[in-house]
Amino acid sequence: MKKKILSTILTAALVFSMTACGVSAPETSAVNDAETPAAAADGEVITLVMAEVNPLDSVAGMTDQKFKEEVEARSNGTIKIDLQAGAVLGPEDQVLDQMLGGGGNIDIARISPFSLTPYGANKTKLMSLPYTFVSRDHYWNFATSDLAEEFLLEPHENGSGVRGLFYAEEGFRHFFSNEDISTIDSFKGMKVRVSDDPVMNGLVKGLGANPTVVSFNELYSALQTGVVDAAEQPISNYKTNAFPEVANNMVLDGHTIGALEVIIADSTWDSLTEEQQQILVEAGKATQEYNKQISEEQENVVLQQLKDDGVNIIEVEDITPWQDAVKPVVEENIKGQEDLYQQIVDMQ
């Protein structure tokens, strides 16, 4: 009887300690001991909650699902990823606030690296500067370099409480509007949706428009009601979030790459064994390769669908005026990091 009581107490203590670390309470599983990695002794299963603002059929959502599959397969089912898509856990800023605060219930999130800028990610900010990456190959040269590893660890090293696992991408980002945007002059006086990001604010001001902060999950209604006239997203997100219904004009200016980053809370990372951490790292590498294969292919399919559906797709014949208009925001945001920024530029 005493042994049963002691066992119950120890089990309750384990559940409490993992919950406090940001790891969801483990579910017991009849995993064969011979198939169970040392990191998950006695067949214990841990569940990590992962947040995604986009739908599962977006490039970001598909990338998340691949990561989930890789983690669960490589851990023989002892690490489960509870993927919550479609912003059910809140928009990106709220997800980050929970994770950075250290007291939330979100362990992993797929974010735009640019979202870390307000939290002191000065290196990461360089990735978001307009017209920095000239091609997908240029971006991938960076994302798979030693320099990328340095950037991924920046929020951990500055005490923000999260760390990056890997990078991916969802294509270049473009402006779309419910008004004519056939030329750069069309933006003068427009209200353009931005997140709370100084780089994007500077970009929009450089185009002569008025930056307006709107949460992503409120963007559809903001475009519909005229709170904003325009916004920007990668092509796949533009379609999967039904934005063509309320903003039927898209100009392919490609002002920045739609970089993706998967982050994990430091508290969650520290609660894992080295074997479990390595599983997440290796799963991230495999997911990167998958994302690299599907992103451009999916984008081309979606772009053709948009054209077939009657969306006004506007090509930019000369990007030079756009680049010239935003030079001040680039120069302002590389101060003190000129050499580091040049390293990224030279990777093209």
UniProtKB/TrEMBL annotation:
Domain of life of the native organism: Bacteria
Family to which the UniProt record says this protein belongs: Belongs to the bacterial solute-binding protein 7 family.
Pfam family for this entry, one: DctP
GO CC terms of this entry: outer membrane-bounded periplasmic space
Record-linked Gene3D superfamilies: Bacterial extracellular solute-binding protein, family 7
PANTHER family in alphabetical order: C4-DICARBOXYLATE-BINDING PROTEIN DCTB, PTHR33376
Signal peptide: 1-25
Signal keyword on record: yes
Protein name: C4-dicarboxylate ABC transporter substrate-binding protein
Transmembrane residue ranges: none
Keyword DNA repair: no
GO biological process annotation, one example: transmembrane transport
InterPro entries: DctP_fam (IPR018389), TRAP_DctP (IPR004682), TRAP_DctP_sf (IPR038404)
Keywords (A to Z) from UniProt: Signal, Transport
